[in-house]
Design goal:
- There is one protein chain.
- With 484 residues, the chain is mainly alpha-helical.
- Helices cover 48% and strands 5% of the residues.
- Strands 1-2 form a two-stranded antiparallel ribbon.
- Strand 3 and strand 4 form a beta hairpin.
- It starts with 13 loop residues before the first helix and ends with a helix.
Length: 484
């Protein structure tokens, strides 16, 4: 029978609170505590989030704090959910508050960056401070942020404990006091960039969450990229090569940086990737203040609209397009089409026997979107048909239209670009398809069969290995790696 939980310490995980309760409540065995705490006594205590608790445990847990506050301030939800789209964020939050398990399907659960097991971590300076202040240490949320390896307060290296963050292993509740030694070696971090990033990430993580904003992080980061440097003069096109070069130069002193590929950055900007640490890195590089990143807002008038309005204004004043181009610092080949409204997708004129008719491209865009989705699904292949790389050209060919057709269909084009992948990632997808096909046919799984199905060379296999886990679960990916 549960009498009373202890109070939460600042930034303490729910798992840590339950572990302290278990140790101090005098249970003879863990299973007796599990019967009182969890709806299923065989469930593994969730280290980063919450479990489904018994009515008695839930009532006492939320006696002094509402469940909404506990989820936001005592679980890792702000790390995984802060930058996802508003509807998914709300659904995941409601799922956690209801203590249901489907939040895993809504949150971008990051895998270990280097393939190693993740452990609960601690700061060797925070521990003695906690013991002096509270009489015991506890598991801090901040110390568990992936992509942050030093304490943002004490600027020292975080240390792995023996507690693995995993869904495997025996169910148990382990306090920090049980596994953290009385003294630990302090390794001071002198990397300025690592310290700066840790402080930035900590302030973002601990701040209140904005659950109502419908602005996507990809669109926001795009809007903060300087025009005429990383974006075209109208703001709609990105110079990803230059952005990637400057980004890597900025973080060249950062150790253990796994956010290094241009396709990773591109997926963040197209809202196909929402990893907390990576978004913080991009925001800090773009010099976005913490307060602005916490409440992202797009400009009332886009750079594209502002540029077009300025061209129109100058043209109405009697200036010629060459003069306007010189004033705005833009190319004549950009200014003239804007002045002639050739960039507008709203009404494009088409000549036919009936004269000059306007095409309602907005309506065509919406009507074509389901066909594009179907074409993409076909290109992704099945256990029988081989997958193909998804590009605008490939979708256009599948639909028997010209690729330029999608220049007038922004929704369709955006849907296609969601599936952008580098060549190595596509090869990985081909390999996974081959493995699944071989298994479905009951044939022995070996390298020769995979090669015959994919026509890939050994060097292609080797470079696609890091991408296998993006296309298959960890167990299958590891098995494939052993074969290649």
């Amino acid at each position: 029978m549960i009498v009373q939980f202890h109070s939460f310490y600042s930034d303490e995980l729910v798992y840590s609170l339950l572990a302290r309760y278990y140790v101090k409540s005098g249970y003879m065995r863990y299973t007796f505590a599990a019967q009182d705490l969890f709806a299923s006594k065989t469930v593994r205590p969730n280290i980063e989030f919450v479990n489904q608790y018994t009515p008695a445990a839930c009532e006492i847990l939320t006696k002094n704090l509402p469940i909404e506050y506990i989820i936001e301030k005592h679980t890792m939800f702000p790390f995984y959910g802060r930058f996802i789209k508003q509807d998914r964020k709300q659904k995941a939050f409601e799922s956690l508050c209801g203590m249901k398990g489907n939040y895993y399907n809504l949150l971008p659960m990051q895998k270990s960056k280097d393939g190693k097991e993740r452990h609960l971590r601690y700061c060797p300076i925070c521990v003695p401070e906690d013991r002096e202040r509270f009489g015991e240490s506890y598991w801090h949320r901040l110390h568990q942020l992936q992509g942050m390896n030093c304490c943002s307060i004490h600027k020292c290296r975080l240390i792995d404990s023996s507690i693995v963050i995993s869904g495997k292993g025996s169910p148990k509740l382990v306090t920090a006091e049980e596994v953290i030694p009385s003294e630990s070696k302090i390794n001071v971090v002198d990397n300025v960039m690592e310290i700066k990033l840790a402080d930035y990430m900590a302030r973002i993580f601990q701040a209140d969450m904005d659950m109502k904003s419908e602005v996507t992080i990809g669109a926001y980061l795009h809007s903060k990229m300087p025009v005429n440097k990383y974006r075209s003069i109208r703001g709609e096109q990105r110079n990803m090569v230059l952005f990637h070069f400057d980004f890597m130069e900025y973080y060249k002193e950062l150790e253990q940086n796994h956010f290094t590929e241009i396709w990773q950055i591109q997926k963040v900007l197209t809202d196909q990737r929402a990893n907390f640490d990576e978004i913080c890195m991009m925001a800090m590089f773009l010099e976005i203040p913490v307060k602005e990143l916490l409440k992202p807002a797009l400009p009332e008038i886009s750079d594209e609209e502002a540029f077009d309005e300025r061209v129109k204004e100058l043209h109405n004043q009697g200036l010629k397009y060459p003069e306007i181009a010189e004033i705005l610092g833009a190319s004549y080949n950009v200014v003239k089409p804007v002045g002639e409204k050739r960039y507008s997708n709203k009404t494009v004129r088409k000549h036919n026997k009936g004269g000059r008719n306007k095409q309602d491209w907005n309506n065509i865009d919406k009507q074509t979107l389901p066909k594009v989705t179907a074409a993409i699904k076909d290109l992704q292949g099945s256990r029988i048909t081989r997958p193909k790389k998804i590009t605008v050209y490939a979708v256009a060919r599948q639909m028997n239209v010209h690729s330029k057709y999608f220049d007038n269909l922004p929704l369709c084009k955006q849907e296609i670009l969601k599936y952008y992948e580098c060549q190595e990632e596509y090869w990985a997808r081909e390999v996974v398809w081959a493995v699944q096909k071989i298994q479905s046919e009951g044939q022995p799984l070996n390298w020769k069969y995979i090669r015959n199905l994919t026509n890939l060379r050994n060097e292609n296999f080797q470079v696609c290995k890091p991408y296998l886990e993006m296309c298959a679960d960890a167990e299958i990916a590891e098995r494939i790696k052993e074969l290649l």
